[in-house]
Write a structure and sequence with these properties.
The chain is of the alpha/beta class and 375 residues long. Helix content is 38%, strand content 15%. The chain has helices at residues 14-20, 22-25, 36-54, 70-81, 95-106, 124-130, 153-163, 235-250, 252-269, 297-306, 327-331, 353-374; strands at 2-3, 62-67, 86-90, 110-114, 135-139, 168-172, 190-194, 205-210, 275-277, 287-292, 309-310, 342-346. The strands form 3 sheets. It has a 7-stranded mixed sheet with strand order 2-8-7-6-5-3-4, with helices on both faces. The protein is globular and about 70 Å long.
Length: 375
Amino acid sequence: MIYLDNAATTRPYADCLEKAKEYLIDKFYNPSALYAEGYNLHRELSETRKKIISHVANVNDFGIIFTSCGTEADNHALFCGGRRGNVVTTLGEHSAVYSCTARLKELGVEVRFAELNADGSVNVKNLLGLVDANTSLVSVIHVNNETGAVNDINAISRAVKVKNARTLFHSDGVQSFGKLPFRLAQTVDMYSLSAHKIGALKGTGALIKRKNLVIAPYIYGGGQEEGLRSGTENVFGIKMLEFAAQKKYENISSDLEYVGGLNSLMRTLLDGGLFKIISPENGSPYILTVGAYGVRGETILHEVNDKGLIIGTGSACSSNSKLRHSRVMEACSVGGELIDGILRLSFCPENTQEEIHAAAEILNFTVRNRRDIMA
């Protein structure tokens, strides 16, 4: 089976699982307990926090709130950072942010949406034009999860602060953490990440935040995570995140170059008469979105699955949506027969060139055959 849906979830690293296993079997203690074993685990988690933050930011300037997933981290940022005035976000956000806006409107917060460029990146001029003295929060996705377009969140956050220094800036970094080398600027207040996108486990995420940033708790209870997210810590999942992140960042440059080669190879192998490339060449190489001419993406997905290829048709988190078409693709002005044929191919460093050749052959054959049948 060829797996090219890594933007949805990744295979957990076996060596990291083996390393983290002791926190499931031997060091199973509650890190909030007062006995020595619990306290020692608490100290270990303190070091884990620093290690994870250090990959993208200065540990003296940022802290981290461990969550159950990237969605919870996004929700925490939106609901606890955007409590007044207006919130500005983009039409290209993941559903974890976009779906929050409906609830914010119900709570009396005005929500403003910035337009997208054709590649899925935000139209920065349009976004900045929406920021005013009453803007409490701006949220801009780092890497568009449907096209791979990269937003320069450091530059955007600085420009937002120039317009309103009190505005908080959040970014969903789920598709960039562990994949793209970057450092968070001081103007980025909150940054979300997810463990299962980088070879760790489902059920763990985090919200990196500026240390001096005061936000309200999201889950109440025993006061864990400095009172901001109560609930007994998932030590096994958190340690797995630490180990997987360490592995990713040790190889981040070489992996980026290798995956870039896989992306380029797929672009050249797909038949230009059957597919249109939608993802920008300067986007994240981990994501390649294409549109098939005249064939529905869901039809292709199922047919290639029968041939041993796993791909996506967009964000897996939106598969339960009642919308016929991707709202992100519509915001990118993708229309006509292409919008019905959207496919998302997403790579990882464990994919091989042989797999890319085989996958392209399956895709070309499937779409060509389906078009012949429909003719």
